[in-house]
């Protein structure tokens, strides 16, 4: 069976832990793992902008011994009538895996349902699961583990990062608190799914509007832009309701003394996070960005192996 990674809970708790274990081993011995030797190719396709995702997949696939094919879809036939189903079928004839950043989840689901190789979500409107693997690797490194730790995400609680924190954090056994203003709350179905996962992992989920209550004694405080890609002209006021959620020294003062701060980047300095916090002693943001590389290398290795199409690096 082909294993895709379209949303965070496509990895069961033990599988997520195995990917993070492998990511740590790959980070410790960066050029030792070559499951894509051949080289086998991986298509990395972008319907939206990117810096980190684009470069970390490109470099990571090369480090695995493979050949990255990084393409902006405006130069393909995606926008002029070629169906995503046909694209999934065709690309599967060329490459070992397909990585896609796109808009609606229906788009990546359509590619996956016709692909015969693993498909990876490199960000959609609803989820950013590769980012969460990097975030969890960072939490492991800085906090000694994920289970039982409290993670507070404050800001746009209706966006892809909020949803991925809910699902991936619950899968990792974390106590996840999500706080955003009225009208910017997470999808109720995703919250319910996260609650169900947390019940099995010893984690928990709380959705709040009060940012201070959310960050109180938290081990991890995370935020993200108030305006995600594609929302620039959605007609909503994306500044005024979010001001109380800015991560500054005052808000951070309510967290645990050894709190770490995460932001997936790009940051809008002075909006959702201040320079003092982003560049301050609690920030783990640049380790977090580096960990995209290691986590995605491990994820690709896991998916290829679980799909029966790679030699094992998990046990090494
Ligand atoms: N964090 C993240 O996904 O960054 P990019 O949009 O630059 O890829
Ligand atoms: N929520 C942001 C994340 C960027 C990496 C967006 O979707 O634009």
From TrEMBL:
<dbReference type="GO" id="GO:0004585">
    <property type="term" value="F:ornithine carbamoyltransferase activity"/>
</dbReference>
<dbReference type="InterPro" id="IPR006132">
    <property type="entry name" value="Asp/Orn_carbamoyltranf_P-bd"/>
</dbReference>
<dbReference type="InterPro" id="IPR036901">
    <property type="entry name" value="Asp/Orn_carbamoylTrfase_sf"/>
</dbReference>
<comment type="pathway">
    <text>Amino-acid biosynthesis; L-arginine biosynthesis; L-arginine from L-ornithine and carbamoyl phosphate: step 1/3.</text>
</comment>
<feature type="binding site">
    <location>
        <begin position="128"/>
        <end position="131"/>
    </location>
    <ligand>
        <name>carbamoyl phosphate</name>
    </ligand>
</feature>
<dbReference type="Pfam" id="PF02729">
    <property type="entry name" value="OTCace_N"/>
</dbReference>
<feature type="binding site">
    <location>
        <position position="292"/>
    </location>
    <ligand>
        <name>carbamoyl phosphate</name>
    </ligand>
</feature>
<feature type="binding site">
    <location>
        <position position="160"/>
    </location>
    <ligand>
        <name>L-ornithine</name>
    </ligand>
</feature>
<comment type="similarity">
    <text>Belongs to the aspartate/ornithine carbamoyltransferase superfamily. OTCase family.</text>
</comment>
<protein>
    <recommendedName>
        <fullName>Ornithine carbamoyltransferase</fullName>
        <ecNumber>2.1.3.3</ecNumber>
    </recommendedName>
</protein>
<keyword id="KW-0808">Transferase</keyword>
<feature type="binding site">
    <location>
        <begin position="264"/>
        <end position="265"/>
    </location>
    <ligand>
        <name>carbamoyl phosphate</name>
    </ligand>
</feature>
<keyword id="KW-0963">Cytoplasm</keyword>
<feature type="binding site">
    <location>
        <position position="224"/>
    </location>
    <ligand>
        <name>L-ornithine</name>
    </ligand>
</feature>
<dbReference type="Pfam" id="PF00185">
    <property type="entry name" value="OTCace"/>
</dbReference>
<feature type="binding site">
    <location>
        <begin position="228"/>
        <end position="229"/>
    </location>
    <ligand>
        <name>L-ornithine</name>
    </ligand>
</feature>
<dbReference type="InterPro" id="IPR006131">
    <property type="entry name" value="Asp_carbamoyltransf_Asp/Orn-bd"/>
</dbReference>
<feature type="domain" description="Aspartate/ornithine carbamoyltransferase Asp/Orn-binding">
    <location>
        <begin position="148"/>
        <end position="302"/>
    </location>
</feature>
<feature type="binding site">
    <location>
        <position position="101"/>
    </location>
    <ligand>
        <name>carbamoyl phosphate</name>
    </ligand>
</feature>
<dbReference type="InterPro" id="IPR006130">
    <property type="entry name" value="Asp/Orn_carbamoylTrfase"/>
</dbReference>
<dbReference type="InterPro" id="IPR002292">
    <property type="entry name" value="Orn/put_carbamltrans"/>
</dbReference>
<dbReference type="InterPro" id="IPR024904">
    <property type="entry name" value="OTCase_ArgI"/>
</dbReference>
<feature type="domain" description="Aspartate/ornithine carbamoyltransferase carbamoyl-P binding">
    <location>
        <begin position="3"/>
        <end position="141"/>
    </location>
</feature>
